[in-house]
Amino acid sequence: MEKVNVKEKFDAISDYWNPRIVGELNGQHVKAVKIKGDFVWHLHENEDELFYVVKGVLTLEFRTKTVIVNEGEFMIVPRGVEHRPCANEEAHILLFEPASTLNTGNITNERTRSKLEKI
Amino acid sequence: MEKVNVKEKFDAISDYWNPRIVGELNGQHVKAVKIKGDFVWHLHENEDELFYVVKGVLTLEFRTKTVIVNEGEFMIVPRGVEHRPCANEEAHILLFEPASTLNTGNITNERTRSKLEKI
């Protein structure tokens, strides 16, 4: 039972779009991910997903609108809703979601990370 | 489906130890709470609880140790572990926990908040 320093976790990450598990509770994971560029359009059939912006700016594209999520803001994407996370510059994101959540949701491609590292 | 600005939520809170619901996902709540002073010793039988410090300093007392949780840090308190949150000065905390979680856990007293406001 130890506290977690979020900045230290991000300092330990050097690649993009590769979420690390930094906390576990109630069947949920807290994940830290550095992002830059455009991800893949996808949805999660059974999981709602929270994106909390620790640093930088996250652009969340939906089929009907685009939301700019700034540092100190979060957004919850309900299950079943297609979305594409993007970032013009490097951004640091905390994710809060069920342990079952796959990063690319209903899509499997070279960006899929099915086995996540705990840091 | 809207983003949430965390600072704006805290700006709307003027009392202490009265958590507000600011997000819901996967049967979990995201709550914002301003704290100052000492809370009551308690535990949650069935819920792990995450404390994320957005502003200020949180002191988490356990029966065996005390942990100082600073801004930008979080700590997960597993179910069944007795704890007492304290803060010498006003602190702003985000909680991530199951919707069933009662603020005073196994204790019921004048600080219990069984019906939380959504803001």
| Overall average residue pLDDT of chain A | 97
The arrangement of helices and strands of chain A along the chain is EHEEEEEEE
Counting copies of identical and different chains, the oligomeric state is: homodimer
Helical proportion of chain A, percent range: under 10%
User: How many beta-strand elements of chain A?
Assistant: 8
Major sheet of chain A:
7 strands, antiparallel
Q: CATH topology of chain A, anyone?
A: Jelly Rolls
Distance between the termini of chain A: 14 Å
Provide the CATH top-level class of chain A: Mainly Beta
Q: How would the global form of chain A be characterised?
A: globular
User: Helices and strands of chain A: which structural class?
Assistant: mainly beta
Please tell me the CATH architecture of chain A by its name.
Answer: Sandwich
Q: How large is the count of helical segments of chain A?
A: 1
> Largest interface: which pair?
A-B, 33 and 33 residues
Low-pLDDT parts of chain A are none
Rg of chain A, rounded, reads: 13 Å
CATH homolog superfamily of chain A: Jelly Rolls
Q: Could you tell me the strand content of chain A as a percent range? A: over 45%
Tally of structural domains of chain A: 1
Description:
- The first copy, chain A, contains 1 helix and 8 strands; from the N terminus they run βαβββββββ.
- In chain A, strands 2, 3, 4, 5, 6, 7 and 8 form a 7-stranded antiparallel β-sheet that branches.
- In chain A, 5% of the residues lie in helices and 49% in strands.
- The radius of gyration of chain A is 13 Å and the shape is globular.
- Chain A has a single domain (6-98), classed as Jelly Rolls (Sandwich).
- The first copy, chain A, starts with a strand and ends in a 21-residue tail after the last strand.
- In chain A, a hairpin with a 3-residue loop joins strand 5 and strand 6.
- Chain A has one helix spanning 6-11; strands at residues 4-5, 20-25, 28-38, 49-55, 57-62, 66-70, 73-77, 83-98.
- The longest helix of chain A has 6 residues, at 6-11.
- Chain A is mainly beta and 119 residues long.
